[in-house]
UniProtKB/TrEMBL annotation:
It comes from Paramecium pentaurelia. It holds the Pfam family ASMase_C. Belongs to the acid sphingomyelinase family. The lineage of its organism: Eukaryota, Sar, Alveolata, Ciliophora, Intramacronucleata. Keywords: Glycoprotein, Glycosidase, Hydrolase, Metal-binding, Signal, Zinc. InterPro entries: ASM_C, ASMase/PPN1_MPP, Calcineurin-like_PHP, Sphingomy_PDE. Residues 440-531 form the Sphingomyelin phosphodiesterase C-terminal domain. CDD domains: MPP_ASMase. This is Sphingomyelin phosphodiesterase. It comes from the Eukaryota. Residues 164-423 form the Calcineurin-like phosphoesterase domain.
Length: 605
């Protein structure tokens, strides 16, 4: 029993989750240590270092089974009260072990736990964001030097014709999608044969997809790709990941990348003349979100996707992807470098990050070197990844440092593109020095309907003379019409809007797009338009948000949610913006802030 109490106390203490009571809790834990060691509390805490390590060895020796049994017992008891039993059992089998193993192996390890308790000397000091800023910004070009750099970089562009870039985000096909299956089954994921048939046939899964907690049948994505190849003929395709269905508790490693392969093969077939630049999302790993950034246990995923995309990659890019899970490649005639980042480096649900949050797999250091190389060569760059830095999933420590890197190379980077949220919106990187707007992040909506979305994809128009975004066209599927016409339907991927026209913008440059948050705050009709596109034109989602806007108690929080989301790009900045009381209305806030504490602190190298 004593071990159990120590473990439970350490769960809170070693992760530093308490502010005002932190020192008191540490003192309580240290009292247990001296009781365990049979000694008196010394005046100098460092004298407790050895007894602490001896005790933690015993705790770690016996705690794994005990802690795991406690968590499983509580999960088994509580989860079915709120969720589908099959979901609860799947999570129990798939994710509980992942969390427990990484927590025990790191935060309850003798050296780590005793350092966090303050009785052993820190092996590495924590790095503040100010220290990181000073380190990265020391050689930043002046404004005049940036202007001169821009002139030379534009002169280096050989092919100055405008070009198009299609973005596919969160296609999420379900290979077990079953027409007629219960689409409103009450489980977290529906539209499968195992969900049975609904009494009301209108509640069944439709042929081309369903507005429900369901992903898409592959045929709908096939049509999307075919339409892109025949009607758009893009010069480039950016594919920002997440191809697997959302039933994360059912999945198996052996076929986890099957949807990615199916989509890749379709792109090769239907759009053979376009250059593909792809990266995977948080759902491609097994289990979902689990990606080993420190060791090599996820090498299987890097190997499989690198081989799928090999025909699009140079030898160096191919080996970068296989070796590290991120890569860059230059389009020489365009004087443009495409940089693919692996956003699992900041995913708070990736428990592997407990092994070390400080620049996982050296990706930020690599990004700096890639952008410095482009700067030296007077070469532009675009960046694409899956999880946006301002999403609740993304660790703010990583997002803050990414923002600093982008500010350092703001003249080099001409576009940054994400998916993941399934919504249609923008975020903005703000300077960590003076708060000014630095760069717009374009976040594309999902191809899948999960949940209640209109299937969507996006096409950017780039200015060939300076590699900047000129505009984009947002496409959506008229799903209701497609299902009404049945399996012989000709799908209508219609233009939902043109970015500049829709928001009344003079250009897609930072100076104009960064005015959008202010305008949203002062123009209710524009805010409604933004929410409508954010909802991908889904009546279900749009009406829900409008209802909240009209509610006296929810109006302020709802407005802040959208406005603050558009003007920030880190979780901490977003929640500072919405205000102390409003942030607690967001159910995910406490969950992800707690996970952020478990991940640990950024350390000096």
């Amino acid at each position: 029993m004593r071990n159990v109490l120590v473990i439970l106390a350490l769960l809170f203490c070693v992760a530093n989750t308490i502010d005002m009571g932190e020192e008191l809790m540490k003192r309580e834990i240290l009292t247990k240590i001296v009781e365990y060691a049979g000694i008196e509390m010394p005046h100098e805490l460092h004298l407790l270092c050895l007894p602490c390590k001896l005790m933690m060895k015993q705790v770690q020796k016996f705690s794994s089974t005990i802690l795991l049994s406690i968590i499983r017992k509580e999960w088994t008891f509580l989860c079915p009260k709120f969720k589908d039993p099959a979901f609860c059992e799947g999570i129990n089998q798939t994710f509980i072990d992942q969390f427990s193993v990484h927590f025990l192996n790191n935060y309850l390890a003798p050296s780590n736990a005793c350092q966090n308790l303050g009785v052993c000397k820190l092996q590495h000091e924590r790095q503040t964001i100010k220290e990181y800023i000073n380190e990265v910004m020391q050689d930043k070009l002046s404004k005049e030097e940036q202007r001169q750099w821009q002139v030379i970089a534009e002169e280096n562009i050989q092919n100055q014709e405008d070009f198009t870039v299609a973005q596919f985000a969160d296609l999420h096909i379900d290979v077990e999608y079953s027409v007629g299956a219960n689409a409103f089954c009450g489980a977290p994921f529906c539209c499968r044969e195992e969900n049975g048939k609904p009494k009301d046939p209108s509640k069944g899964a439709q042929y081309w997809g369903t507005y429900a907690d369901c992903d898409l049948p592959f045929r709908t994505i096939q049509d999307l790709i075919k339409f892109t190849g025949e009607k758009i003929k893009p010069d480039f395709i950016i594919w920002t990941g997440d191809s697997t269905s959302h039933d994360v508790w059912h999945q198996q490693k052996w076929n986890q990348t099957l949807p990615t392969k199916m989509i890749t093969d379709e792109i090769k077939k239907q759009i053979p003349n376009s250059q593909l630049y792809a990266i995977y999302g948080n759902h491609e790993g097994y289990p979902a979100d689990q990606y080993d950034m420190i060791g090599e246990s996820t090498q299987w995923l890097r190997d499989e996707v690198a081989d799928m995309w090999k025909q699009y990659l140079t030898q160096e890019s191919y080996y970068q992807l296989r070796r590290n899970g991120y890569y860059s490649q230059v389009e020489k005639s365009r004087n443009l470098k495409f940089i693919a980042l692996n956003s699992q480096a900041c995913d708070l649900l990736n428990f592997h990050l407990m092994d070390g949050i400080t620049d996982p797999r050296g990706m930020l250091k690599w990004l700096i070197s890639e952008l410095k190389d482009s700067e030296d060569k007077h070469q532009f760059a675009v960046i694409y990844a899956h999880i946006p830095p301002g999403d609740t999933f993304c660790n703010s420590q990583w997002a803050d440092r990414f923002s600093v890197v982008i500010e350092r190379f703001e003249h080099v980077v001409t576009g940054i593109f994400y998916g993941h949220t399934h919504q249609d919106h923008v975020q903005h990187i703000r300077s960590k020095i003076d708060g000014r707007y630095v760069k717009t992040l374009f976040i594309a909506p999902s191809g899948t309907t999960f949940s209640y979305q209109n299937p969507s994809f996006r096409v950017f128009q780039f200015n060939g003379k300076n590699n900047s975004v000129k505009d984009y066209v947002q496409y959506r599927l008229d799903l209701a019409k497609a299902n009404k016409d049945g399996q012989n339907a000709i799908l209508n991927w219609e233009v939902a809007y043109n970015f500049l026209e829709y928001y009344g913008l003079e250009s897609a440059s930072l100076v104009h797009v960064s005015s959008l948050p202010y305008r949203l705050a002062h123009d209710d009709e524009l805010l409604k338009k933004y929410i409508y596109s954010y909802s991908t034109g889904s009546d279900v989602l749009y009406k829900k948000h409008l209802k909240n806007l009209k509610n006296l108690f929810l109006k302020k929080g709802t407005k802040s949610f959208f406005i603050c989301g558009a003007q920030t790009s880190t979780l901490d900045d977003w929640y500072d913006c919405v205000g102390f009381f409003e942030k607690f209305k967001e159910s995910s806030f406490l969950t992800f802030k707690l996970l952020e504490q478990f991940i640990g602190k950024w350390l000096k190298e």
